[in-house]
């Protein structure tokens, strides 16, 4: 895309000089402005937030709170509540633990989900909640006719990924939101794999909860986000920082996101996440999407041409992100990942990708090799991966 100069972008990520990093779906690298923000906090104004009046706490509080506004704006969520969490997993657990469930309530999720968007719902069986897991259609997108079939008056929530962390398929969340709301059902969207790779607007989607990981979108590790349209859940964590007042017998909780952030948070992480949002916004998520699409297409086409290589969900280039799962005949996925590291300094993930039900659904007993593209990868790196796989096959 015009103005997208990857060689300039790469100067902000010195770590890229050492390796070809294609494990962005697991976690991304952080650019220098994010790293600088963490160092600045540690060197110059490290203090707790929302406590006391001294000047360090004022700077720290103000920057941490401001980061929430930046992140909210980045996902078009200014009208809702943007809570900082440790990661996507914590955010989903907060929703699962924060809704008041009744025995017999049902939740619908899909076979595409990361374990984090399955296990917290399943754990609610202790409260009599039932989870329905729907399959996919032939393009590995959630089967919407099955969704319509399984939802019933007891269905309270649908929880679905925006993009699969194994197949890269982008799901039709707007359509799913429509189905949910026609039936009075709340929708949680797991945006962990979408937010780093495409423009996202939670208000346009019309979901009730939107969760994602800061550490996959150039932010520091230990950061994630729970966005909600309304404060429709109870806080899962109680303690300091989330209360307005406490008496001998009770308390009044804070309003807004503070209600959901008990205890001292990851302050520098939150501030760094705000800087990561600024960084991506400046480059433009439309440009990131367009750029990554060209790399993704090249990767899929290149891998497909190699004898013995199977690429999963290869046929929906316009409807996918740059997460590409494949296998090489005669090799365990871990062997391929090891070879790529040892022979070419290429980092990819191998195994089940925290998606074992999907692996079972696809009949993949040993999992897959997964190359996942980030906004700083280059065509040269994609070609290096393809060439190295070719060498391994030979
Ligand atoms: N959902 C999806 C779609 C993911 O890709 C991931 C991370 N692989 C998660 C949830 C969990 O994210 P985290 O480890 O940051 O909690």
From TrEMBL:
Residue ranges annotated for the Aminotransferase class V domain, each copy included: 20-385
Family named by the database record: Belongs to the class-V pyridoxal-phosphate-dependent aminotransferase family. Csd subfamily.
Name recorded for this polypeptide: cysteine desulfurase
Organism annotation: Methanochimaera problematica
């Amino acid at each position: 895309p015009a103005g997208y100069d990857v060689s300039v972008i790469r100067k902000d990520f010195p770590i890229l000089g050492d390796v070809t990093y294609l494990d962005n779906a697991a976690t991304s690298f952080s650019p220098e402005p994010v790293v600088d923000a963490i160092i600045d906090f540690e060197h110059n104004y490290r203090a707790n937030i929302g406590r006391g009046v001294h000047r360090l706490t004022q700077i720290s509080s103000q920057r941490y709170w401001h980061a929430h506004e930046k992140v909210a704006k980045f996902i078009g969520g200014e009208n809702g509540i943007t809570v900082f969490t440790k990661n996507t997993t914590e955010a989903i657990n907060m929703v699962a633990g924060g809704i008041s469930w009744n025995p017999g309530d049902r939740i619908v999720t899909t076979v595409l989900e990361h374990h984090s968007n399955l296990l917290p719902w399943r754990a609610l069986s202790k409260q009599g909640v039932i989870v329905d897991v729907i399959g996919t259609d032939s393009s590995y997108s959630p089967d919407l006719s099955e969704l319509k079939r399984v939802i019933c008056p007891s269905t309270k929530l649908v929880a679905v990924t925006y993009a699969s962390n194994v197949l890269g398929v982008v799901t039709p969340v707007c359509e799913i939101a429509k189905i949910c709301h026609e039936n009075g059902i709340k929708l949680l969207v797991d945006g962990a794999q979408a937010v780093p790779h495409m423009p996202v607007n939670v208000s346009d989607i019309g979901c009730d909860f939107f969760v994602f990981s800061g550490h996959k979108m150039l932010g520091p590790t230990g950061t994630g986000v729970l966005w909600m349209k309304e404060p429709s859940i109870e806080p899962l964590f109680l303690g300091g920082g989330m209360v307005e007042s406490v008496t001998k017998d009770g308390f009044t909780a804070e309003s807004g996101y503070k209600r959901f952030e008990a205890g001292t948070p990851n302050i520098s992480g939150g501030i760094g996440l705000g800087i990561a949002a600024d960084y991506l916004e400046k480059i433009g998520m439309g440009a990131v999407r367009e750029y990554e699409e060209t790399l993704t297409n090249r990767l899929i086409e290149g891998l497909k041409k190699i004898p013995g290589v199977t690429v999963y969900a290869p046929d929906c280039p316009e409807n996918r992100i740059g997460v590409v799962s494949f296998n090489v005949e005669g090799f365990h996925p871990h062997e391929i990942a090891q070879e790529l590291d040892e022979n070419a300094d290429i980092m990819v993930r191998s195994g089940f990708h925290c998606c074992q039900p999907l692996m079972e659904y696809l009949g993949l007993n040993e999992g897959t090799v997964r190359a996942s593209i980030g906004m700083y990868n280059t065509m040269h790196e994609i070609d290096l991966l393809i060439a190295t796989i070719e060498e391994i096959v030979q």
